[in-house]
Amino acid sequence: MANFSTVWKLLLYKLIVLGIMVGLFYLGYTAVASVASVQALFSSVGDFVLSFNITSGFHSIFTSIYELFVLLFEVIAELAVEHTWIFVYFTFLSLIVLPFLWKFSDIATGESLYGYMASLTRTSFVGALVRKSGHASLYSLMRLVIDVPLNLAIIAGFYGILQILTVGNGVVSSLLLPVIVFVYFTLTVGLKMALFSGWMPAMVVYNCGPIKGLVLGMRASFRRFFKVFSTSLMISAIVIAVNLLFGSFSFIITVPLSAMFVLVFQMVMFFGSQGMRYYVDLDTILTPKKLEETDKLKTVKDLL
Fold it and tell me: What predicted TM-score, i.e. pTM, was given to this entire model?
């Protein structure tokens, strides 16, 4: 809450990214707007966004998502064969441009949080975005290489769950489907969050490149992995529940808030793993136990 101004700047950045992406996708859409399957897909997406906010049944929501998956696969197959260049363009935007721009702001947000935690200083978000553009670009590219396959695997698993449990529209699946989907995303997103939670903070704190930051960050995460993982599970459960509860219209607010929440967790985790003192507010300073000392004791024990 003390850094809420950064939240709104992060929100503005995300909105700018979404605006850019909508414009770029529209350029490609104009070339294939006459294709019936493409029109049907965009119409179905619009109907789903509306139904997500007014429907009371989670099973109907997940059934709609499954139908969107099926329609999306049909559109992808048709574009790949009949409109290859448009297919390549959409794929490039979805798998390269959007993830790159979405993660580009993490380093600047981390700089703002680091200044507050270390010395209660205010760091300009826009200034950090410009000043750290080099590190942010390399970080986004490396996150791209790692995140895209992982995210596609998570989505593939989600599709498999929908394919199995939406068949027949039975009472059992109606009761179990929301629970299974919630647990699945909590586990997968929580594990991914725990593994890479120290990456961005390591780059910010030690002012290093993405490769060294990844090594230092994973070392910090694994120092107390089960604690980090359990906290990641709790955070991912809260984030998923909040976004599901308030519907798609609220994403414009809940998504940036969730992103800030996760980044705060990453910074606190890293500070704690390094034994670094940090401000919670003007009157509260936390001094975590320095875990490097524990690492050295374990090393000596193993040698003995």
Answer: 0.82
Q: Which two tokens mark 148? A: 């895209």
Residues making up the chain, counted from first to last = 304
Pairing of strands 284-286, 278-281: antiparallel
Q: Which letter does DSSP use for residue 250 in this model? A: G
Q: Which of 131, 106, 132 is nearest to 201 (CA)?
A: 106
Give the phi and the psi of residue 185 in degrees, each rounded to 5: -70, -35
What whole-number distance in Å separates Cα of residue 191 and Cα of residue 147? 13
Q: Among residues 241, 146, 131, 111, which one has the least CA distance to residue 186?
A: 241
* Element containing residue 116 per DSSP (H, E): helix 106-119
HSE, CB side, 13 Å, CA atoms: give it for residue 212: 8
Return the number of other C-beta atoms located less than 10 Å from residue 27's C-beta.
Answer: 11
CB 135 within 8 A of CB 111: no
Per the structure block, which two tokens stand in for 47?
């109907």
Contacts of residue 65, defined as CB under 8 A and 6 or more positions apart, other chains included, come to 48, 162
Over its length of 304 residues, how does the chain's per-residue pLDDT go in tens digits? 666 777 788 888 888 998 999 899 888 888 888 888 888 888 887 777 776 665 556 667 777 788 888 888 888 988 888 889 999 999 999 999 999 999 999 999 999 889 888 888 888 888 889 888 999 999 999 999 999 999 999 999 998 888 887 655 555 566 677 888 889 999 999 999 999 999 999 999 999 999 999 999 999 888 888 889 999 999 889 888 877 777 666 677 777 778 888 888 999 999 988 888 888 877 778 887 665 555 555 554 554 4
Terminal CA-to-CA distance of the chain, rounded, Å? 48
The token pair at 104 is 């580009």
